[in-house]
Automatic annotation (TrEMBL):
<dbReference type="Pfam" id="PF01963">
    <property type="entry name" value="TraB_PrgY_gumN"/>
</dbReference>
<dbReference type="InterPro" id="IPR002816">
    <property type="entry name" value="TraB/PrgY/GumN_fam"/>
</dbReference>
<feature type="signal peptide">
    <location>
        <begin position="1"/>
        <end position="31"/>
    </location>
</feature>
<keyword id="KW-0732">Signal</keyword>
<protein>
    <submittedName>
        <fullName>TraB/GumN family protein</fullName>
    </submittedName>
</protein>
<dbReference type="InterPro" id="IPR047111">
    <property type="entry name" value="YbaP-like"/>
</dbReference>
């Protein structure tokens, strides 16, 4: 019983989507293309700008600006900090988890759904068992209107694998709170780059991220779906706490909760979703630093990828590059 309560309190699955896996934002948009090609705007700047999770990594002639993203944001998260504006102005090109063109493509959500279609002749409930199936049915009834807006209902969800349904549960919860993938930091910065005619690229492809999710162990998929449903039942508090930590630029709060809990409770998932991908990105990031000339690159990736001993910031520091946090609002680096 204690394990179930702790799991319900943990925002790990939501954090993995919000802070690490860009493609997760497409799940609730299967029937509706994202508007990622336009920069986000807010009608009223009700709050001060978010404190950015932003670092500058340099060698003798080139620099990388590493910006930690939240893949779905609220309208009043804009405008951004002047630190981000200055990094964007200084960078000649931008690099994302997935290229902005691919992330904004209406085909990406359809590819994700196609990969998740069951081919074993069973329904989702056959795999879930009675207790988890009842939780999913309860969630589906409470969110019927939101599901209908994406062309889905609980019966249609029976055709998909648990990872996809869990992704939909989490993203649907976030969107119900007002979070919007079309104004997530990746989409916003991609739109700015397009308007400024700055080249963009991806560290990986949508197909690679889909393969990562679709290739998860069946037991792990069930665990993630259960956690997503528990998180939805627990309410908005933990997701809003995670967003508040990102907004405050509080790297320690994110490390102490999301990163530490995922590493402890889901070591295989943490290794795959964070460590392995960070290691695969390092040569591509170093290649940008070694380019001839003095072209700087702004790198926009999920915030979790930048933090802690497994984050790319510390991995690049360990390789001897000069690293500094860019944060005019911070009392200390």
């Amino acid at each position: 019983m204690t394990e179930t309560r702790n799991r319900a309190r943990s925002p790990l699955f939501a954090a993995a989507l919000a802070a690490s896996v860009a493609i997760g934002t497409t799940a609730a948009a299967v029937a509706a293309p994202q508007a990622g090609s336009k920069p986000a705007t807010a009608t009223v700047a009700a709050k001060s700008p978010p404190v950015p999770l932003l670092w500058k990594v340099s060698d003798d002639d080139n620099s990388l600006y590493l910006l930690g993203s939240f893949h779905l944001l609220l309208p009043d998260d804009y405008p951004l900090s002047r630190d981000v504006d200055m990094a964007f102005a200084d960078a000649e090109k931008l690099l994302f988890e997935i290229s902005p063109d691919e992330l904004a493509s209406p085909q990406l959500g359809l590819q994700m759904a196609q990969a998740a279609l069951r081919t074993d002749g069973r329904t989702l409930n056959d795999e879930l068992g009675p207790e988890l199936a009842a939780k999913l049915a309860d969630w589906g009834r409470e969110n019927a209107a939101q599901l209908a807006a994406t062309g889905m209902n609980v019966e249609i969800l029976q055709r998909f694998e648990p990872w996809f349904v869990g992704t939909m549960v989490t993203v649907a919860q976030m969107m119900a709170l007002g979070f919007d993938p079309s104004i997530g930091l990746d989409a916003h910065m991609g739109g700015l780059a397009q308007n400024a005619q700055k080249p963009t690229a991806g560290l990986e492809t949508g197909a690679q991220q889909i393969a990562f999710l679709d290739g998860m162990d069946p037991a792990e998929q069930l665990q993630m779906l259960e956690q997503a449903l528990d998180q939805a039942e627990a309410g908005a508090e933990l997701m809003l706490e995670l967003h508040a930590a990102w907004r405050a630029g509080d790297k320690q709060a994110i490390l102490d909760s999301t990163v530490s809990e995922m590493r402890r409770d889901f070591p295989a998932l943490y290794q795959a979703i964070n460590v392995d991908r960070n290691d695969a990105w390092l040569p591509k990031l170093e290649a940008r630093l070694r380019e001839d000339g003095e072209d700087d690159t702004l790198v926009v990736v999920g915030a979790m990828h930048l933090l802690g001993e497994d984050g790319v910031v510390e991995k690049l520091r360990a390789k001897g590059y000069a690293v500094e946090r860019v944060c005019s609002a911070c009392a200390s680096p």
